[in-house]
C-alpha cells in the first residue's frame, strides 16, 4: 500500500494509531530523519495488517483465493483468465522493434475503509504523455481500474503484440505483502478488506508477463512492497553487450518503486517521489538507454531523501533469457 508521509509526525513511532487516524493529519514541522520515517512506516504497516485482517485470514486458509484460472480451464468468454505462456520463437539476425505499446494503470479512488490515493492517475498521465511524445509509444491509460479491467487490458495487449514489439506496463496503486508467506499483491479499486478475491497476486502477474510474445517487456510497479516482484533475479550491474545483442534476447524486467517496504504517495510537483524521479530521468534520455541505467539514476534520486529503495530485476519464470529493456527516443540528441 502506498502511503503518505506527513512531515512532523515524530510521535507516530510511539502511538499505536488506527489507519483512519492518519488520514487527517496535517503536514507540519520539518522533515523527520530516516529513523523517524522508518518508525512511522512500521506503525502504518501494523495499521494496514489490522485493516486487511479478514482478507489475510482468507489467504492463510486458501493461498489461491486471489488466483485467476488459466484460459484453458474456462469454458466461457466472460471474466478474466490467464493466457498460456508463449513458446520460444526464433531470434532474427537483424532484430528490429516495429511497435511500441504502453499500458499504464493509475488507481486513486478506493472505497472506504481503504484510503484513497492522490498521485497515481496524475503520475501515469504524465509518464504516458512523455512516453508518447519522446519515445513514440502507443499509450493506453486505465484510471481507477478494477481487477477485471486491469487484467483484461493486459490480456488484450498480449494478444495484440508480437515478437517485434516493445511493451511497457505500469501499475500505480495500493499493494500488500504478507508477513508469513512473503506473497505480494496489487489491490485494484474493487479490492476489499474482507476478501482477497479481487486482489492480484504476484504469481498471476508473472503468468500474464509470460503470455507476451514480445522480446522486450518491462513492468514498472509503484506500490508498496513491489520489490517482491523482482526476487527471481535482481540486477546488480549493467548487462554486457550492445543494442542488437540485447534485442536478440527475450528480456522481461521489473522496475519497482521500493523493496519490501512501504512507499510514498507524496514527492514533488504532485507526483509520488518515484514517479517524479522516473519522469525526470526519462526526460533526460538523449539516446538509447538500457533499463538498468534508468533504474540506477531513479534509485539514487529516490533513496537520497526517502526510506525506500527501488529495485530492478528479471522475471525468469516469464521467459527472461538475458539482455535488458531498451528505451529509445524518437529523435536521439
Q: Tell me the number of helical segments per DSSP (H or I, 4 or more residues long).
A: 8
From the alpha carbons, calculate the radius of gyration and give it in angstroms.
19 Å
The average pLDDT value, as a whole number, equals: 83
Would you report the number of β strands?
16
- Please provide the ordered H/E string of secondary-structure elements: EHHEHEHEEEEHEEHEEEEHEHEE
Sum up the overall morphology in one term. globular
Low-confidence stretches: 3-31
Question: Which percent range fits the helix content?
Answer: 25-40%
> Main sheet: which strands, in order across?
3-2-4-8-10-15-9
Beta content = 15-25%
The largest β sheet comes out as: 7 strands, mixed
- Quaternary state of this entry equals single chain
**Structural class estimated from helices and strands:** alpha/beta
**Straight-line N-to-C gap:** 38 Å
Amino acid at each position: 500500500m502506498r502511503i503518505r508521509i506527513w512531515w512532523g509526525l515524530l510521535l507516530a513511532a510511539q502511538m499505536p494509531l488506527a489507519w483512519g487516524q492518519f488520514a487527517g493529519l496535517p503536514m507540519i514541522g520539518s522533515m523527520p530523519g530516516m529513523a523517524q520515517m522508518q518508525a512511522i512506516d512500521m506503525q502504518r504497516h501494523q495499521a494496514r495488517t489490522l485493516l486487511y485482517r479478514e482478507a489475510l485470514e482468507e489467504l492463510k486458509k486458501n493461498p489461491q483465493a486471489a488466483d485467476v484460472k488459466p484460459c484453458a480451464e474456462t469454458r466461457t468468454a466472460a471474466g478474466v483468465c490467464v493466457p498460456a505462456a508463449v513458446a520460444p520463437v526464433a531470434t532474427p539476425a537483424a532484430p528490429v522493434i516495429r511497435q511500441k505499446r504502453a499500458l499504464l494503470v493509475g488507481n486513486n479512488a478506493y472505497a472506504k475503509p481503504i484510503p484513497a490515493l492522490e498521485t497515481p492517475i496524475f503520475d501515469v498521465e504524465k509518464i504516458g504523455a512523455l512516453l508518447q511524445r519522446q519515445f513514440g509509444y502507443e499509450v493506453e491509460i486505465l484510471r481507477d481500474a478494477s481487477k477485471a479491467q486491469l487484467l483484461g487490458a493486459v490480456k488484450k495487449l498480449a494478444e495484440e503484440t508480437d515478437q517485434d514489439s516493445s511493451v511497457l506496463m505500469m501499475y500505480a496503486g495500493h499493494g500488500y505483502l504478507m508477513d508469513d508467506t512473503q506473497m505480494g499483491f496489487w489491490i485494484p479499486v474493487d479490492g476489499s478488506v474482507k476478501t482477497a478475491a479481487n486482489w492480484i497476486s504476484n504469481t498471476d502477474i508473472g503468468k500474464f508477463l509470460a503470455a507476451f510474445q514480445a522480446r522486450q517487456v518491462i513492468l514498472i510497479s509503484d506500490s508498496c512492497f513491489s520489490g517482491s516482484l523482482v526476487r527471481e533475479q535482481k540486477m546488480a550491474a549493467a548487462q554486457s553487450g550492445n543494442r542488437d545483442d540485447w534485442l536478440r534476447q527475450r528480456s522481461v524486467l521489473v522496475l519497482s518503486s521500493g523493496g519490501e517496504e512501504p512507499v510514498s504517495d507524496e514527492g514533488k510537483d504532485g507526483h509520488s517521489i518515484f514517479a517524479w524521479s522516473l519522469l525526470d530521468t526519462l526526460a533526460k534520455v538523449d539516446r538509447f538507454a538500457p533499463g538498468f541505467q534508468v533504474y540506477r539514476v531513479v534509485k539514487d534520486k529516490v533513496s537520497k531523501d526517502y526510506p525506500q529503495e527501488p529495485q530492478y530485476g528479471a522475471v525468469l519464470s516469464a521467459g527472461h533469457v538475458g539482455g535488458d529493456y531498451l528505451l529509445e527516443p524518437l529523435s536521439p540528441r
